[in-house]
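Example (one chain per record):
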Amino acid sequence: MDRPVVATTFYVRYAETDQMGLVHHSAYLIWFEEGRSQYMRACGADYAEIERSGALFAVAEAHARYEAPARYGDRVTVRTWVEEIRSRSITFGYAVYNADTGLPRWPWPGCCATRPSPAPSSGPARWSSSRSF
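Predicted structure:
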């Protein structure tokens, strides 16, 4: 299946690094949140709009595997896509790359965001359409 992927590029900030100058593992979760937000905007929605409709996302699962560290000043790209949509959950996939070399930094196999109510009828189709962003 051809699925849309949204790329979000930015520089690693000093506050995201540890004493060794490497990106702290907790920063990646924030990057993925931004990736999800950009993905939703690219689909014509945003979290504020979705929450106003009464649907709330909560991360139920997150797992990752390090490939190579990112460092202060690196330009990184977070690629975000929808892996799976079910009646009460959406599983997003992520991969982080060095924006200048294209080398992987921390591919993220998935993060499952669940919600307490069924997805709006127009949402899932819009979020997983095969159109390009």
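Caption: The helical segments are 25-42, 47-52, 123-127.
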